[in-house]
Structure formats: structure tokens, C-alpha cells
Prior knowledge:
Order of helices and strands: HEEHEHEHEHEHEHHEHHHEHE
Mean pLDDT: 96
Number of helices: 12
CATH superfamily of the largest domain: Aspartate/ornithine carbamoyltransferase
CATH topology of the largest domain: Rossmann fold
CATH class of the largest domain: Alpha Beta
Strand content: 5-15%
Distance between the termini: 21 Å
CATH architecture of the largest domain: 3-Layer(aba) Sandwich
Helix content: 25-40%
Bound molecules: phosphoric acid mono(formamide)ester
Low-confidence stretches: none
Number of strands: 10
Largest sheet: 4 strands, parallel
Strand order of the largest sheet: 3-2-4-5
Amino acid sequence: MMQITKPASFENVVSMEDLSVEDVLSFVHDATEFKAGKQIELKRPVYAANLFFENSTRTHTSFEMAERKLGLQVVNFDPACSSVNKGETMGDTIKTLQAIGVDVMAIRHKKNEYYKDLVSDPNIHVGIANAGDGSGQHPSQSLLDLMTIYEEFGHFEGLKIAIVGDLTHSRVAHSNMEALTMLGAHVYFGGPKKWYTDEFANYGEWLPMDELVSQMDVMMLLRVQHERIDANENGAFSAADYHEKYGLTLKREAMMPDQSIIMHPAPVNRGVEIADELVECDKSRIFRQMENGVFVRMAIMTSMLRNRDLVKAEY
Ligand code: CP
């Protein structure tokens, strides 16, 4: 890994577009150290809140696990029972939590770039980690994907990585194609061509599944995001047809090179984008990605704590 000249210190972590190569490698380095047992000591009690206005299993629970492992106190917040339902704005909700003493938070929201108004508001000082904005960015997922790839190959330069599936609606695809290209990997795309729009063509070519599987180091699969697709399109969707044309079938997995791996941000729709039997096969790193998610989120939170001078020691 390149020499890290300074530990990551960020006021907020909201988009991969804000990160340089050194920033990304610094997060991966910190996450790797947390995985090896590194701990931090805080200067005072620090409070975190997790605001998930969209469904989540992995990101929500692993941010909370990361916060607890760092010694933060986690304040419970449930949007379904909150005053958001009485018309309170997101900005006022954040300022309320800040006023009661929350220092850092993870936020997921269906609105693309919801964070722009928050991080530019001079009255908001709480640290914001973007836990996913609509089809925009998912920086903690991207960083855990990068950590998992780095653990496997020890570098990014020259790797061939295919992102396959519902590209248009995927914040993972957006975050990862930018980061992987910046790190020197070659990005390819697969799945229904209607989702391979100009923004993706600027980053890499589209290939049929049978060509991708025989050439790639990493097959990164995405689920079809039915919640972001209209009723007509959902009505015409056939899981069996999709699996046959664009899925990682048993036959296609057998065509993959020996050292290649399978990734998926999950949740997985077994039998659609990937055969049921392959979710936990030897090549699959899907549950390793989830494990690494805790350490990456420890690194993200620590970067915001360093920025606020709340870290006494790291050992
Ligand atoms: N990968 C991911 O973001 O999963 P969740 O939606 O369960 O958080």
C-alpha cells in the first residue's frame, strides 16, 4: 500500500467524490488495523445516532456495532416514531439531535444528495456519515468493497472488475465505478443494456455475461431495485428470465478464472442475480464484505472523531 502521510480526518464523509487515492487507502489502512484489534481512547463521552429513513439491515447494524466497538454511546432514533411524521424537516431533526448532545451520526435517505443542505448549513456541526442517498452515493459500502478487494489481491492497479445488474438505481455502482477507476482498476459492466447509460459508458464497456465471467478478477453483482422501478416495469419482470440472461449461474461460475472472486453488496435475491448455491461458495466474499463493513465504519467514525479532536489515544 502507498505510504499514508496523515491519518484520515474528515468533518463529514458523504461521497467518494470527495476522497483522493490517499484518503481511500488511509480508510482501508485504518479499517485493516481495526480488524487486527486496534482500539481508540476518547477524551470524553461521545454520542452517536443512526438515522435510517430507508430500510437497511447491514449498514444500520454495522454502523451501530462500529460505534459501540469504538466506545461511543448510541442514541436510539426511529424515524417511524419521530416528529418527522409531524412535518419536522430533516435539518431541524439533525439540529435537535445536535442540541441534545449527539456528536456524530450516520444517515440514510431516499433523496439523492440529501446531505448537501446539511453539510453547508452553518448551524450544523455534528459529523455526518452518508449511509446511502437514493441512487447517489454509498461511501461506506464502497470502502468496505475496496477493503475486501485489497485483502484479496493486495493492489487495485490493472484488476478487471465487472459491475453487473441494475446500474441506474444503484448507489454502489456509482460510488464504486468512480473509486475503482481512480485506483487504477479497469471497470466493466453487465446486465440489461437499458441500465447501461452514458454515465456508465464513460467509465467502461458493457459485455455479455459469458464474456465477463471468463475474463474478470471480480464479479460484483447487484440486485434489481424493485422499489425504485415503476409498476409496469416490475410487472414485466421475470426472475427466471433475468437469471438466465444476466445472472451468475452455476455454469457461468465454472467459467470464472481460479483466483477470481464474487462480490455483492447485499441484500441478495437468491436465484435471480446469483444462483442460490453460489452465495456461500468458495469464490464468494459476500459475508466477508459484511464483516469488513464494521471495521470500515469504525474507520469512518474515527476520522470524524479525529477531526473534532475527540480521540485521546490510538493503540
Ligand atoms: N448493502 C447495504 O447497504 O445493505 P443494507 O441495505 O441492508 O444496509
